[in-house]
């Protein structure tokens, strides 16, 4: 069943801004998608850091603001879910976005990881007609379900399943970010470090000209002491840092959008 907030509003952008892209030599190659005029359909795939909780903007909203102003082609966000997590009821039932005026669709869930999303991704990509997957997963897997090697194997299965539904799907994936548990639990920290190393190899192995994979570097300067409200979940500055990391990687590698600007502080 679709987790929906009503009324839902769709937003697109066809703005072609006058900006200088920070890119590399291959930015104008077949990997570039900025000159395609079709509607570009992004889908967020993530855990509690991506779904967010009641009263938050989420980094999804921050990235939407950026793409709205710099994407250069029509786009929207897609997915089978729209809600935030309600920490009072411990369920994904809240529609209380700090700013609801953006396409809120996603595939993210509190306490979910590669372990949970891999079986869902083929049908979801197919039904939502997703073109680009923006993925931030792994913390839950390593903390509760699988070790680094098993988690990396799930990444490979996830990509294979997504490509079975859309052979030209693009996937941008962020490593597991440093959080409070990494500081407190040496074994967990070792698993996170090992998985992040395996993720680099996995992305390199699976990258394909028809279905590019993009490793999104961790946000520069990201610090769980100042960029989260509880050691894990992003606050306003953390939302901007994560959105900027994805935005910068897509601009540099795929020629999509321009330099990230956080805009004025939220009221």
Descriptive account of the structure:
The two termini are 34 Å apart. This protein has 267 residues and is of the alpha/beta class. The protein is globular. The chain has helices at residues 48-51, 59-70, 114-117, 121-128, 139-145, 148-165, 180-184, 186-206, 224-227, 236-254; strands spanning 40-46, 75-77, 84-86, 91-94, 107-108, 132-136, 170-174, 213-215. It has one domain (28-254): SGNH hydrolase (Rossmann fold, 3-Layer(aba) Sandwich). The strands form two sheets. Strands 1, 2, 5, 6, 7 and 8 form a six-stranded parallel β-sheet that branches. Strands 3-4 form a two-stranded antiparallel sheet. The model is unreliable at 7-30 (pLDDT under 50). Helix 2 crosses helix 10, helix 4 packs parallel to helix 6 (148-165) and helix 6 runs parallel beside helix 8. InterPro entries: GDSL_Rv0518-like, SGNH_hydro, SGNH_hydro_sf. Residues 44-239 form the SGNH hydrolase-type esterase domain.
């Amino acid at each position: 069943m679709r987790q929906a907030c009503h009324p839902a509003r769709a937003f697109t952008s066809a703005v072609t801004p006058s900006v200088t892209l920070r890119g590399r030599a291959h930015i104008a190659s077949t990997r570039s998608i900025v000159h395609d005029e079709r509607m570009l359909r992004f889908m967020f795939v993530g855990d509690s850091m991506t779904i967010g909780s009641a009263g938050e903007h989420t980094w999804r909203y921050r990235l939407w603001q950026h793409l709205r102003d710099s994407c250069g082609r029509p786009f929207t966000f897609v997915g089978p879910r729209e809600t935030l997590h309600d920490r009072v009821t411990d369920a994904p039932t809240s529609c209380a976005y700090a700013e609801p005026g953006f396409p809120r669709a996603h595939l993210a869930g509190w306490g979910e990881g590669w372990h949970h999303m891999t079986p869902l991704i083929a049908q979801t990509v197919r039904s939502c007609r997703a073109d680009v997957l923006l993925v931030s997963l792994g913390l839950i897997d390593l903390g509760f379900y699988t070790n680094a090697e098993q988690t990396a194997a799930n990444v490979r299965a996830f990509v294979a399943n997504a490509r079975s539904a859309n052979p030209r799907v693009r996937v941008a994936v962020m490593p597991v970010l440093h959080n409070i548990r990494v500081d407190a639990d040496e074994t967990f920290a070792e698993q996170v470090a090992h998985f992040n190393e395996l993720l680099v190899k996995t992305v390199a192995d699976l990258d394909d000209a028809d279905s590019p994979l993009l490793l999104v570097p961790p946000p520069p300067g990201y610090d769980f002491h100042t960029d989260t409200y509880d050691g894990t979940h992003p606050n306003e500055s953390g939302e901007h840092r994560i959105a900027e990391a994805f935005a910068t990687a897509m601009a540099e590698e795929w020629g999509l959008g321009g330099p990230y600007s956080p805009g004025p502080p939220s009221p």
